[in-house]
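Input structure tokens:
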């Protein structure tokens, strides 16, 4: 995964590309709505800690990510955050929190049924009674196949990126092919494979790990209408 994604090889560029994201604000709104007394939070697949930086203004936070390059970058640019290297399939921090989050489609990088169950077991292993899970993940395929091109302002000048999607119904994996033309003229290719879990599948995984799903929303107050959705669940197993 690391080798094929330019943004993971260049976490500073990842932060630039994601800079207009509102996911942390939305996550906070969902927590206020469902668990207003929450004080502690763990974010699995936290990447460079861009959401965690905002959430840490309100909660005592720990972040976990698989890739040392993302975590090193987080330590450099967000030195105040507690971000650790770990695999959300297996990591055990020995702490239980009021909120568990997994944002920015991180769950979609785990493709296999058994391993997805392991991730939900990790969520459960870090929850206090009545804790909240906030998960942002792909719930529907991208079936558009024609490529689109966009300009991206990077710290080193303007780049362009051409994106083409491929959907494999058999595996429920969406592959995003990206071709970058970088400010200094070099080209780079990406291939990002994300597993779609449809709403009823997500519900099944959550319930199997002891969570009751409270809400599934596109962020506007409506149900899941787009390609990604926010799932909010409460840990009900004693
Ligand atoms: C698209 S990024 C999202 C990062 C962050 N949540 C955000 O919204 O900016 C996906 C992240 O998931 C992490 N990831 C993928 N599989 C993981 C695993 N098994 N355990 C921990 N992190 C994982 C990747 O290293 C990557 O940083």
């Amino acid at each position: 995964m690391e080798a094929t994604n330019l943004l993971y090889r260049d976490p500073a560029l990842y932060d630039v590309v994601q800079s207009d994201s509102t996911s942390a604000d939305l996550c906070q709104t969902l927590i206020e709505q469902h668990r207003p007394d929450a004080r502690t939070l763990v974010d699995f697949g936290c990447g460079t800690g861009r959401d965690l930086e905002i959430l840490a203004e309100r909660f005592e936070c720990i972040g976990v990510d698989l890739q040392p390059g993302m975590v090193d970058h987080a330590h450099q640019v967000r030195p105040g955050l507690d971000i650790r290297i770990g695999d959300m399939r297996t990591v055990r921090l020995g702490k239980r929190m009021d909120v568990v989050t997994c944002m920015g489609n991180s769950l979609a990088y785990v493709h296999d049924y058994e391993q997805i169950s392991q991730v939900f077991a990790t969520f459960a292993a870090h929850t206090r009674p009545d804790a909240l899970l906030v998960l942002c993940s792909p719930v529907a395929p991208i079936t558009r196949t024609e490529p689109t091109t966009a300009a991206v302002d990077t710290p080193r000048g303007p780049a362009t990126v051409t994106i083409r999607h491929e959907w494999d119904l058999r595996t429920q994996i969406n592959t995003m092919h990206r071709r970058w033309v970088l400010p200094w003229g070099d080209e780079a290719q990406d291939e990002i494979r994300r597993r779609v879990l449809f709403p009823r599948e997500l519900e099944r995984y959550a319930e199997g790990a002891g969570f009751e799903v409270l809400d599934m929303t596109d962020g506007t107050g409506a149900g899941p209408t787009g390609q990604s959705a926010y799932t909010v669940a409460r840990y009900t197993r004693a």
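DSSP finds seven helices and eleven strands in the chain. The first helix runs from residue 6 to 9.
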